[in-house]
Structures are given as structure tokens and as C-alpha cells.
Amino acid sequence: MAQSEKNPFELVYKGAITENVDGKVNIHPVTYKLNGIDIAANVYTPADYDPTKKYPAITIAHPNGGIKEQTAGLYAQRLAEAGYITITADAAYQGASGGEPRHTDKPQYRTEDIHGMADFISQYPGVDTEHLGALGICGGGGYTLKAVQSDKRFKAVATLSMFNTGIVRKNGFLNSQVSTIQERLKQASDARAQEASGGEIVYSGVDGITDEELAKVSTLFYRQGYEYYFRTHAHPNSTFLYSTSSLMDLMAWDATDDIDLIDQPLLMIAGSNAQTLYLTLDAFPKATNAKNKELFLIEGAAHIETYWKPEYVNQAVNKLVDFYQNNLITTNL
With helix as H, strand as E and coil as C, how does 64-90 read? Predict the structure, then answer.
């Protein structure tokens, strides 16, 4: 059941913090400017947090259509329980963050969001900037792969259920729309022209689904995604809408371009039953210069199930904690 109306921090994941208690993990809603836009974020601090001490920190980029109160918040809380200061922010133009037109979804903005989280958390009391890691989930995973190529403040990087948004927007999910690439680019171009002339903004995607429509969704990934975002973990700031003109940028973008620039330790986690697994399997071998790189499959897990299902989340968190412990904390940087 969605918990945004019950939870004082609007968190909708199971086991979410309901109040800040001394000696336990706490959550701190914050805002900051990024390229003139107000960014809404949550910082999680470990139990017995002391701002005069030094802690490793991790940025967490949320999925496409997601916001900080959903799975990104769950992983931020779990990693804070393991001793990390964590931050997860709503993407610019999305969620509770500012930016117009709403639901603009350009890869350069999503990548800049990750640099912005690094900017902010590096100034946060108690953060050890020499031990800064990154985690990206779904679309946030693809954007995190891009961000760490050039941002060497990040000393270790991990992805969960990585979704290479540009490739999917260009070729279609499971390469199902290759024959219509030029047609869809024309639609995106026309949408931009309409915006530029002061016309109505055109959107792609969905902002809700009826039970009848849901029953007809044949693709497991999308069906479980709609159930997650519109039923079990719904939040009013979360939507699958994005401006059609964004496709001009998205369809010409690939998270794996220049991926050989990643020389940090890399962990990529995905469910063995995820229909999106092909995207992780494509990216992983291309990261030829990543140190201590590892591919970890969660047996039996589908993509969306890694967002919330306790047995799969626990496996992912345990692997992440082990990875960051070995490559972020104990490694002589």
C-alpha cells in the first residue's frame, strides 16, 4: 500500500523512517541550487551520527519515473544503516525539484543531477570526500555510469538493474522499435518545434493506468513497473510522463559511450530473471578499465522486484555493503 499520506517524510517503501530518533538512522530533507534550479533531496545519516567525525558517503540516483521517496530512499536508508551518509535527490524538472517544462527528461540533466549530489554531499558535515561512492538504480544506473566516467570524486560505483535509457528510447524495449526510429525522431522534432513556437508541450509515456489497461500489459517489466508506481508504491510526484521533445536528446545518447573512461571499481547488480538484464550484460564487458569489476546476479529476481522484495533487496544491500567496504573504505585511495 502507498504510504505517502501516512509517512511524515512522504516515504512509500516498507520499513521507512517515520521519525528521527537519537541514536538511529535519521533523514534530513534538504534543498540546494543546481544550475539555478531548486533540487529537493533527502540525506540519510547513520546511527549515532556525529558531524565532527568522518563518514564515507554515497549518492543514489533514482529510476526513470521514480523519485527519492521510493526505492532510491529504501537503498539510501539501508546503506545509512551500514554506516554511510547517503543522499538521493529528485531529478531536475521532476518530482519535488524545480525546472520547467515539467517532466523534461534529458540525459545531460540526469547526469548533471549526479554531479550535483556530489557537490552538495561533499560539503555536508561529517562527509569524508576521499570516500565518496555512487549507486544508480534503473535509469539512474545508466546515468551514473555516465557521470563517473569524468567525475573522479567518485571512488567506487555500483548499479542496480541498470537501464540504458538512450538505447531503449531509440531501439525500443528489447529492440522492438528499430524500424520506427526515424519516424519517432520526427515526432520529437515536431514536438520541440511546437514548444519553441509557444504551443502546448507534448508528452510521451503514461501518468496512470486503469485495472483494465494493466491487465492487458503483456511485458512483465512494464506490468510490474505500473503496479509498483501506480499501485503498491504510488506517490503523487512520481510519473512515467516525459516530454516528447526530450527524445531528441535521449535517442542520440548511450550510457556506454566512453565507458572505458571508468577506472574506478565497478559493481553491476541485476536480477537473473530481469527482462532488462541484456542492458547490464551489454555494458559490463565494455567497461574495460574498471578496477575490481564484478557482475552480480540475484537469482530469480525480475527488474522491479529488486526495488522492494525483501529477499532480493537484502541480497543487493549485502553485496553493496561488501563492495563499498572493500573498494571505498579499506582500499588505500
Answer: CCCCCCCHHHHHHHHHHHCCCEEEEEC
Grid coordinates representing 4 are: 505517502
DSSP state of 328: I
Model pTM score? 0.96
- Of 119, 191, 107, 195, give the one whose Cα is nearest residue 154: 119
Instruction: Kindly report, residue by residue over 157-210, the tens digit of the pLDDT.
Output: 999 999 999 999 999 999 999 999 999 999 999 999 999 999 999 999 988 999
> Which amino acid, residue 33?
K
Q: How many residues belong to the chain? A: 333
Q: In whole angstroms, give the CA distance from residue 106 to residue 251.
A: 10
DSSP-derived pairing of the beta strands 85-89 and 37-45: antiparallel
Q: What residues have CB less than 8 Å from 237, skipping those under 6 apart?
A: 67, 69, 90, 94, 95, 96
Q: DSSP secondary-structure letter at 231? A: I
Taking alpha carbons only, the member of 211, 207, 216 closest to residue 236 is 207
Rounded-to-integer distance, Cα 234 and Cα 211, Å: 15
Asked whether the predicted pLDDT for residue 3 surpasses 70, the reply is no
Percent helix, strand, coil in the chain, to 5, is 40, 20, 40
Of 184, 295, 240, 214, whose CA–CA distance to 70 is shortest? 240
Residue 4 has pLDDT above 60, yes or no: no
Rounded Cα gap, residues 76 and 79, in angstroms: 5
Beta pairing class for 55-61 and 26-34: unpaired
Instruction: Give the pLDDT of residue 5.
Output: 63
pLDDT digits over 27-55, tens only? 999 999 999 999 999 999 999 999 999 99
Identify the three-state secondary structure at position 206: coil
